[in-house]
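[stage:ingest] chain + small molecule (D-malate)
[stage:ingest] validated
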Amino acid sequence: MPQAPIEFTIYPDQCDTWGHLNQAAFLQFFERARWEHLARGPGMEIFRAAGVWPAVRRATVDYHAQVLPGDVLRFTQTLPALGRTSFTMKQAAVRAKDGVTVATAEVVFVCVDPAGSPTPLPDQVRSALSMPTDGVTRRTINGVTVALEERGSGPAILMIHGYPLARTLWRHGVDHLPGWRRIAPDLRGMGESSLPDGPASISDYADDMIGVLDALEVKRAVVCGLSMGGYVAFDLVRRHRDRVAGLILISTRAEADTGDARRGRDESAARAAAEGAVAIADSMLSRLFAPDSLTRIPGTVAEVRSGILAMPVPGILAALIALRDRPDSRPLLPTLGNIPVLVIAGAADVITPPQGMHAMAQAIPGAGYVVVPGAGHLAPLEQPDVTTDTIARFLRKLP
Ligand code: MLT
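[stage:predict] done
[stage:export] tokens:
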């Protein structure tokens, strides 16, 4: 249950003689963050009302970096496992000023009755603990503070957004794919994820996704990528096939940029550098949506526009270079027969039109192909029910 981070400032009286945050004081911060997290979520009262109490059975802490007086620590909590009588909370403490993860903890709770014996988690506690929240967690991966939304438990699905977008693209799927652990990160330099110095390649974005899976201890995931997210998915299959349990390719393409397209990327980069993100919003917005969506869902269109305007220009430039220089993934397509693949096209997509998507699906042995009516390039936002339902049907058939 991701939630907004909980912040504490460190004072000198919590530090040892070397001036570092003392580990016993650190444990107290983890405790306070856990308490605050539960209080902000289901509320501690839910346990009392059910006549049970969460007792800590095991706590493991890893310290990664020193913390000094004046540092502000941001604590995030997730609940990766909800058992019959127990649940596990993972915690991370991140130094606010530089995004470095300074410590991580894993705490296993057992639900106990008034006599102190383990007892099954009452239904109301179970559903409160797994309730959705609109929060986000942050992980430091490859020098990037990656913001990600994680919801539910079960086999994992990694949802990778396109350019110039953010994880909010997947909002409907994150809310409506029960039985799956839905993981939706912001790519570096987009949404709320940071951007390290220097250029990026599609493989850098893919390496971050592997870092996300590692950080969440996910061995294999169904990878669902839209457009640039699809290019990242191809790279994951190319270099980390053992991590990919299935592939959902939405509004994307396998071929590399043509000469004209490459020049177009350079022109967009020059305009973004000169005029800012507004140049990208103005040139792309009407092409991202089906003409009908522009008038049917103006709120969503406005939200995407604000998201683009909020994008830092270095994030735009890094993505444009990575898109421009991405490799041709067509040779990969005939080799995908051992992975379940679903290709989803938007019927009115002008960026990756259905004809090209269909040809891509035909080049992948056994791939499914679905066209979403009334959708342009952003089917998960334009036709969320149909798109999520199409994904859910594919997931249900997986071994
Ligand atoms: C995207 O949605 O990620 C972009 O349209 C990809 C591209 O421009 O190739």
